[in-house]
């Protein structure tokens, strides 16, 4: 018996490769019939929301494991910078594994996902704000811009791996250096 | 009479606000009946492709107007840097006006859009490569990473404006500074 979670995982893997894959293709990827897929998910939107939930769980775990709340509260520059680098490295992995969920427009229509997104984003904003106050990040940029820049660069990570533009081994360094010091030669 | 192009423009404006808007909502936004919308576009995918084409025309115009090919060929650091800054400023506007097209998965299924995307991207890659050789950009990053980072940051621009996180007046500076020198305090 293929569980609901196994179907979601298999569908996600397929959608990471081809975001427009049909429900028939997703059933095939999960090794179930279309009838079974439809018994679990009334339609594409319901499956998309299940994938979004999985991605948010992974994101939440990344924030917990990096200890972002404690680091932000500490005010300690060295600790904040180490946590920020740790977090970016983990988020690069998450962006690769949950790439489809990063830009799926369907996720915006689910109020529960949106509410949880805001709670998770608030924890990151607190870390970026603490980093600005501790002198780790420039303090002349809106903290929400910093957060949106990280999100954008993670899409860059996802695409770089998806299209084979960058070696997996190099992508974290590229993300962290671009975020902290940019791509300019005279940094 | 509402022309096909007017419908595409009105639909794009609506989709920028709500990427999941229904075909009925798009017809309403364009001030036409659903029957008229369907006479122009057999379905959502056809409308999406028309929006993608419009976005690519705008992108191509941005590359032409910035003179990226000439700047890349010149090898002149000052000219390359000025062109790069000009291009980023224009692309920030394009990202705002064509935001929906930046992350619409449906565009990947159209071979013509994909082929044109690759031709346009190649012109940007040539500019980034020239910038690396001229000492404007760091030369230890794959040029395709640089391109993907720009694309990601443009999504950050789009979202920052869409959610009201950043003032329109500030967003170009934030994009250019983040791209060239990063968000770190010790740049």
From TrEMBL, chains A, B:
<keyword id="KW-0805">Transcription regulation</keyword>
<dbReference type="InterPro" id="IPR050109">
    <property type="entry name" value="HTH-type_TetR-like_transc_reg"/>
</dbReference>
<keyword id="KW-0804">Transcription</keyword>
<dbReference type="InterPro" id="IPR036271">
    <property type="entry name" value="Tet_transcr_reg_TetR-rel_C_sf"/>
</dbReference>
<dbReference type="InterPro" id="IPR001647">
    <property type="entry name" value="HTH_TetR"/>
</dbReference>
<feature type="DNA-binding region" description="H-T-H motif">
    <location>
        <begin position="22"/>
        <end position="41"/>
    </location>
</feature>
<protein>
    <submittedName>
        <fullName>TetR/AcrR family transcriptional regulator</fullName>
    </submittedName>
</protein>
<dbReference type="InterPro" id="IPR009057">
    <property type="entry name" value="Homeodomain-like_sf"/>
</dbReference>
<dbReference type="GO" id="GO:0000976">
    <property type="term" value="F:transcription cis-regulatory region binding"/>
</dbReference>
<dbReference type="GO" id="GO:0003700">
    <property type="term" value="F:DNA-binding transcription factor activity"/>
</dbReference>
<keyword id="KW-0238">DNA-binding</keyword>
<dbReference type="Pfam" id="PF00440">
    <property type="entry name" value="TetR_N"/>
</dbReference>
<feature type="domain" description="HTH tetR-type">
    <location>
        <begin position="1"/>
        <end position="59"/>
    </location>
</feature>
């Amino acid at each position: 018996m293929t569980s609901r979670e196994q179907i979601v995982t298999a569908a996600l893997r397929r959608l990471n490769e081809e975001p427009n894959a049909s429900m028939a293709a997703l059933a095939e990827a999960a090794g179930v019939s279309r009838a079974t897929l439809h018994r679990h998910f009334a339609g594409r939107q319901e499956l998309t929301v299940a994938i979004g939930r999985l991605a948010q769980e992974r994101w939440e775990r990344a924030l917990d494991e990096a200890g972002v709340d404690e680091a932000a509260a500490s005010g300690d520059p060295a600790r904040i910078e180490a946590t920020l680098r740790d977090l970016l490295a983990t988020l690069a992995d998450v962006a690769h594994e949950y790439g489809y969920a990063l830009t799926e427009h369907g996720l915006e229509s689910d109020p529960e996902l949106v509410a949880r997104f805001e709670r998770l984003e608030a924890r990151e904003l607190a870390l970026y704000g603490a980093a600005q106050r501790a002198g780790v990040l420039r303090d002349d940029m809106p903290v929400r811009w910093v957060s949106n820049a990280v999100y954008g660069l993670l899409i860059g990570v996802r695409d770089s791996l998806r299209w084979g533009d960058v070696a997996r081994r190099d992508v974290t360094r590229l993300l962290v250096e671009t975020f902290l010091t940019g791509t300019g030669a005279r940094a």
